[in-house]
Amino acid sequence: MKKFFIIAVTVLVVLVAGLFGVLSIATHKPTVAFYKLDEKTVEALKSEISSIKKENGKELKFVYEILDPAVPMSSQKIAKKAAIIFAALDADVEEYAKTSSKVIAQKESVIANTPSTTKETAIMGKKGVLAVPLLYDFYIVDINRGMFEQSELKTLAVIDDLKAFAKWSSENKDAPLMFPGKEDDGMVDFLGAYTEAVYGSAVLEAAGEKLYQAFKSDYKAKDEKYTSLNQVSEELIAEGGLLNPALKEIRQMVLDKSISGTSFYMNETDFVFFMEGAYVCAMGNNLSQHRLIEHKKANVYSSVYFPGKSLNSDRKFQALSYCALSQSKDKDVSTVINLLASSRQSNLSLKTGLTPVDSSCSAQDRQSDDVRYWLAASEGPVKPLSQFVPSKDALAVVAEVFRRNASAPFIE
User: Residues 254, 409: contact at Cβ < 8 Å?
Assistant: First the structure.
C-alpha cells in the first residue's frame, strides 16, 4: 500500500510539473530589447508593434526591455535571449550581427525598397539580412537663413563657404558656428563629420577602427580607466595622426572665433536654448537633436549636410542606422520586422522625426526627405565616429581628449 502511494504521488508530481511546463510555454511572452535608442524612438516602435496582429487576428504580446547603453550589447544576457533587438548600429552591434549564431537572417526582400547605396547598413549573411535597417539619424548643419541672407554670401556649398559665413557672423552678429560639445557624442561626431567632409570617409573609418580595437582591448582586460583607448585617442589627434588635420582646423576656427568656445560647454538643453533663440549662424547637430526644437522656431533654419572640400568630392555621410535583429524563428517575429521595414515606415518617420529607409514611403518632412535623397545620391552612409566606441563610459574618455585639445585656445 505504501509503495502504491509513493508511485501515485510521484506520477501526480510529474503530471503537475508537466502541466505547469505547458502553461509556462503557452503564456511565455518573447522579449523585445532596445539598445541605444532614445525614448521617442522606443515608444514609436512599441506603438507600431502593438498595432500588428497575428495571422489569426489575435494581439501580439511581448515583454519589453531597455538594455544598458554603458555596456556593449554583445555582453548583455538579456540581449542574447531577446526575440528581437532594435539597436543603434554601433561597431559592437555590427560585429554581433555578423558573428552570433543566435541571429536569424531575414529574406533579402525585406530591403527591396532600400536604395542600393544605403544597403551597406543592412548587414548581410549567407542566408539573408542579419541587421535590417529601419531608420537613419544624420549629421546636419542648421543654417540661420536670415543671417545668411544678410551676409550677402552667394552660396554655402563647400567648407570654405561655411568658414566664411561663420567668420562674418562672428564679427557682425556675435553669432558664430556652434555645436553641443559638452555631450560626448556631440563632441566626437562634430570632429567625425568635419573629418569625413574635408578628408574623406576612409580616414574617418580608419580612425574609428583604431578606437574600436583599443576599446575591445580595454574592455576585455576590465580596464575601467580605458588606458589603451585614451592613448589611441591622443595618438589620433597628435601630429601625424589621422584626425590631426581636422582637429587643427577646428582649433583654428575656435581661435579666430568662427566657432564659439562656448560649444565645448554646451549640453542638449543649452543647444535648444541657442537654437530657439536664433543666437547662432549655424549649428552642427543630428537630425534627432534638431527635432527637439519647437517646430515654428526651427523654421528659421535650413538643414544642410556638412559641406565638403569641393563640390566634386565623393561623400559617405555620417549617418546612424537604427536596425532590427531577429533571434527567433517565430513567424510573428519575422512579420513584425518585415512590416516595420516596409508599410510602417511612414508611421515610424512621423513619430520619430528620423529618416525612413524605404524609398517608396513618405517621409515626415523636407529634412527627412532631403536626408534620404543625400544618402541615396552619395556613396552611402558611414558610421558616426562615436559609434566606434560602444560604451558611454568609454566614449566619455575619447570625448574628453578631443574636447581638451580642440578647445585649448579658448581655455587659454
Answer: yes
